[in-house]
Amino acid sequence: MASLSLLPSPSSSSSSSLSSLHHTTPSSSRLTLRTPSLNLRTRTKISSIKAQSTPVLTQDDLKKLAADKAVEYVKSGMVLGLGTGSTAAFVVAKLGELLKTGELKDIIGVPTSKRTEEQARSLNIPLSVLDDHPHIDLAIDGADEVDPLLNLVKGRGGALLREKMVEAASDEFVVVADDTKLVDGLGGSKLAMPVEVVQFCWKYNLVRLQEMFKDEGVEAKLRAGEDGKPYVTDNFNYIVDLYFENPIKDGYAAGKEISGLEGVVEHGLFLDMATAVIIAGKTGVEVKSNENMGNSSSLKPKCLYCSTDNLAIVSSLVMIAGAKVLWDRYLLLLQDTYASVKLKFLAKPCVVGGKLSKIDSVISRLLIINEQIWSENMKRSLELIV
Questions:
Q1: Where is this region: Disordered (predicted)?
Q2: What is the Cα–Cα distance from 189 to 53, expressed in whole angstroms?
């Protein structure tokens, strides 16, 4: 896993290029969700920024606090991914205000939905698309759920496909939310986890999704619009909403299995994508930065052994492993030499007496201790990386 760099504060003169993983490979076998036995993810660093206390803060007030904090990361000349939803709308409104006053200049927005596009145009925010700007400096969006590792559920606004495309193309992805979005595990709010599917045989996939997560007590429903007809996304697809009785045990396995279904366009699990999450609560604004995000423009899993901090440890492991090979060869040579000498002395028991049995015992103990020492050293070195 790569060396983990935090999203710089708005005042920092340095910049970092951060990206995330969202592509998964189909799995041919049925999903068995298990709690992973080994979690190689590093801890999330949390820093708190206390806001001025307010007698009563509504949910909209909290969203605006988080949005205002996120906009501090925006610099003139940036290409920005503009999210969708009630919280993202506060971000877009703030950007329009700063452009109007001249505090920001030369901003280009890449909207993640038609309604965000309409709002941005009404505020005279210059817009573009991924085709013309495939490299995005910063994306800001809301989230429906945020777990302790900053994995997300998104898409209750129906824009999950475009959101994931834009945010995956961004160097940094900052999430804004109020504290009601925090969950212990994805699906833990018992609200919708959306899956975008093609209209063709949508019920076929609805049944398969329900069967896939039957151990989590899931209920799958086709999303309906205000007119009672099936909700149609900006990409002319349907959405199947999954309602979990119990949180998803393994989001990565779930994402792979969902993506493997023919006819599934995208799912609302945004895993390893958030650079930082800004959460507004009654006592202020809290910024959580995920330390497992490295500097990379590729959407590949971060390599555990490629970081600056871990390279030294890995190099030591390689040296230890090499030394062990040499030591093992030495012990084998010692055994072979002793065996040949032993044969000669066995012909003269009066000379050797009971010493051969003692030597046998010493060599056996040496071999056992040797394995214990090397195993313990390797184990401790690996624990340093994890």
A1: 1-36
A2: 27
Give the closest residue to 35 by CA, choosing from 278, 248, 177, 346. 248
Mean pLDDT of 137-142: 97
pLDDT in tens, 19-50: 443 444 444 444 444 444 444 444 455 554 55
3 state SS for the chain: CCCCCCCCCCCCCCCCCECCCCCCCCCCCCCCCCCCCCCCCCCEEEEEEECCCCCCCCHHHHHHHHHHHHHCCCCCCCEEEECCCHHHHHHHHHHHHHHHHCCCCCCEEEECCHHHHHHHHHCCCCECCCCCCCCEEEEEEECCEECCCCCEECCCCCCHHHHHHHHHCEEEEEEEEEHHHECCCCCCCCCEEEEEECCCCHHHHHHHHHHHCHHHCCEEEECECCCCCECCCCCCCEEEEEECCCCCCCHHHHHHHHHCCCCEEEECEECCCCCEEEEEECCEEEEEEECCCCECCCCCCCCCCCCHHHHHHHHHHHHHHHHHHHHHHHHHHHHHHHHHHHHHHHCCHHHHCCHHHHHHHHHHHHHHHHHHHHHHHHHHHHHHHC
Mean pLDDT, rounded, for 353-380: 63
Topology given in CATH for the domain delimited by 44-183+268-303: Rossmann fold (3.40.50)
Query: What is the pTM assigned to this prediction?
Result: 0.63
